[in-house]
Write a structure and sequence with these properties.
602 residues; alpha/beta; eight-stranded mixed barrel; 22 helices; binds ligand C2E; binds calcium ion
Length: 602
């Protein structure tokens, strides 16, 4: 095909004439031509006619607005000069296939070079009019989609990035883990995952305020990002939790080294609002191959490893099956439970404890429930064992204590001076920070310590008696009351209790609920009450399910009764209704615990 400039000019003359002149013979044709020209010349899209060599013929005036070039500057230049080499190849391919099949709509996305040097993303449509005598070329329409792209990118950022730090969020992290596992070579290297949870971040939020907390998280994000390789992904999973996926690592020791590097990146003090803050981190480590091959298993196990690191104050911990007594279902629940805590899905129900002699409601026991989004109201036996197995019990107990004390404060502001009983788990008795946290929570809610009773079971005490004794002594010295829960179900003798700072005994409901019909249980209950009184302990009988039992307890001079006969555990609002309608009178009707009555704790 001839390629001289004269040839090209001759070939394009037909459509050029068509666009640039008004046919003389018909007025209608003239006005139609003017209409087309007006449309073309005022279109915001860029309209180009390209000859079969890819050279620009007609260029619409919008070239100035879209690409910064004048019509004159572009006319007769190869279209491909405006495209990157990749896009130029794609455009050549598109023109070739368009000329083979002119009926087929040809579209492609490309970027065109602006006169100022940057690239303009465009959506290109190619129509073949090579055989149209008025055109003899390809009509290329290019629409600037920069704005749309920016919007798409903003939406993508929103869906996949954490708004505060700009790091990938949980969704993108999960995708990166999946991708890294998919693309890992079958031998040689593996993928490591690190879970990093800041220690002491909550205190910063509470004391310095959320703005300072946010600022700290941003600096943490920057430091973490700076200490990993370009191919690694650092993500913020929420709160003070960060995670890293490291593809192409040789062995687990490399992952441990990366975890240590993360921790030392956080070792230098942080300066937030002119205050120097020290933050440490606990990091869990897993390695594909060694600890699992699918994302779900690895993510669950790195979570467990992180909690081991946190609980044992190890700094970093590699997943160890010996410290993980969970089956996969329980592990999934652990993750759910941690999110539930953040989302406020845990509620407290309150069960009254009544003075047997006067009928007065003296106390309430706070009992935790999980208002699960799919499974409805869950009782503590379905989820507490899972929490108790990990460090999560610490956060959970703090949450429960805070919520119970907040409710106590509301009641006391309303003139109801009710003692609140909160259950502790065995693991709580190993947490040296507990007495300090209890004191802080009491102060934060303005509740006098003598209004709080902490219930511990015998089995919790015998796990590590000396540590438990020491911790209970510290708790008692704050002024809170200590109660031995489920008394009689374990092996503690009343004599052993003399070494503990105990104020109250709760007789296990297995004895109480049967005592009206079972003489030996009635005898046990009676003697526990008498011996307990000799030790100056207050006695609570739990599991009082009927009137005869309550009457019998009154005859044994039991101090306090708790059980379904008086009331089931109730949500705060339902408790208020029960309390105000009942007052000090003995309650002869049962109150039912219903899921519908749940309200979030304040
Ligand atoms: P617990 O401390 O012995 O709590 C009393 C349990 O007995 C409650 O069950 C209560 O609903 C039930 N109960 C009360 N009166 C009667 C009665 O008359 N008859 C019968 N059959 N049962 C009665 P719940 O709420 O399911 O709690 C079960 C256990 O879960 C508690 O036993 C406690 O060990 C644990 N738990 C509950 N809330 C918490 C919490 O906030 N923290 C900790 N660490 N453990 C908790
Ligand atoms: Ca209890
Ligand atoms: Ca109990």
């Amino acid at each position: 095909m001839p390629g001289t400039r004269t040839d090209r000019l001759r070939r394009r003359s037909a459509w050029w004439d068509f666009l640039n002149s008004t046919p003389r013979d018909a007025l209608a044709q003239a006005s139609q031509s003017q209409l087309f020209r007006a449309i073309v010349e005022n279109s915001s899209d860029l309209l180009l006619v390209v000859d079969d060599q890819g050279r620009l013929g007609y260029v619409s005036p919008s070239a100035r607005a879209v690409l910064g070039w004048s019509v004159r500057e572009l006319a007769d230049r190869p279209l491909f000069e405006l495209l990157s080499s990749v896009d130029a190849a794609a455009m050549r391919q598109t023109l070739r296939s368009a000329s083979r099949d002119p009926e087929k709509a040809c579209r492609l996305e490309a970027t065109l070079r602006h006169s100022a040097g940057f690239w303009v993303p465009v959506e290109v449509t190619v129509t073949v009019l090579l055989h149209d005598p008025h055109v003899r070329g390809f009509v290329v329409t290019a629409r600037d989609v920069g704005e749309r792209k920016r919007l798409e990118q903003a939406l993508t950022r929103q869906a996949y990035c954490d708004a505060l730090t700009g790091l990938p969020n949980r969704v993108l992290f999960q995708a990166r883990v999946e991708q890294a596992l998919r693309e890992r070579p079958t031998t040689g290297t593996g993928v490591a995952l690190l879970f990093c949870d800041l220690d002491g971040f909550k205190a910063v939020n509470d004391v310095q305020g959320h703005a300072a907390g946010d600022q700290l998280l941003k600096v943490v994000a920057t430091r973490l990002t700076q200490c990993v390789r370009a191919r690694d992904t650092v993500a913020r999973l929420g709160g003070d939790e960060f995670a890293v996926v490291l593809p192409g690592l040789g062995e687990v020791q490399d992952a441990v080294a990366a975890a240590a590097a993360l921790r030392s990146a956080l070792a230098a003090p942080f300066h937030v609002d002119g205050i120097e803050l020290d933050i440490e981190a606990s990091v869990g480590v897993v390695m594909s191959g060694d600890h699992g091959d699918d994302p779900t298993t690895l993510l669950q196990r790195v979570d467990v490893a992180m909690y081991v690191a946190k609980r044992q104050g190890l700094g970093e911990a590699v997943y160890d099956p010996a410290t993980d007594g969970h089956n996969p279902t329980k592990l999934a629940m652990l993750g759910d439970l941690r999110r539930a805590l953040q989302r406020g899905e845990l509620l407290l129900h309150y069960q009254p404890e009544v003075d047997v002699a006067s009928g007065e409601v003296t106390s309430v026991e706070a009992l935790v429930r999980w208002c699960h989004p799919d499974r409805g109201l869950l009782m503590p036996d379905t989820f507490m064992p899972v929490a108790e197995h990990t460090g999560l019990i610490g956060a959970l107990t703090r949450y429960i204590l805070g919520a119970a004390l907040a409710q106590t404060r509301i009641w006391s502001d309303q003139g109801r001076l009710l003692n609140i009983s909160v259950n502790l788990s065995a693991r709580n008795l190993l947490d040296e920070r507990l007495p300090e946290q209890v004191a802080e929570l009491l102060a934060a809610h303005g509740v006098p310590p003598e209004l709080l009773t902490l219930e511990v079971t015998e089995s919790a005490i015998v796990t590590e008696p000396l540590r438990a004794q020491h911790l209970l002594a510290r708790l008692s010295s704050i002024g809170v009351r200590i109660s031995i829960d489920d008394f009689g179900a374990g092996y503690t003798s009343l004599g052993q209790l003399r070494t503990l700072p105990v104020d109250e005994l709760k007789i296990d409901r297995s004895f109480v609920s049967t005592m009206a019909h079972d003489r030996s249980n009635a005898l046990i209950v009676h003697s526990v009450i008498d011996l307990g009184h000799n030790l100056k302990l207050s006695i609570v009988a739990e599991g009082v399910e009927d009137r005869p039992t309550l009457d019998m307890l009154a005859s044994f001079h039991c101090d306090t009764a708790q059980g379904y006969h008086l009331s089931r555990p109730l949500a705060a609002e339902a408790f208020d209704t029960w309390y105000s309608t009942r007052g000090k009178r003995p309650c002869r009707t049962e109150c039912g615990e219903q899921a519908a009555q749940t309200t979030p704790v304040p």
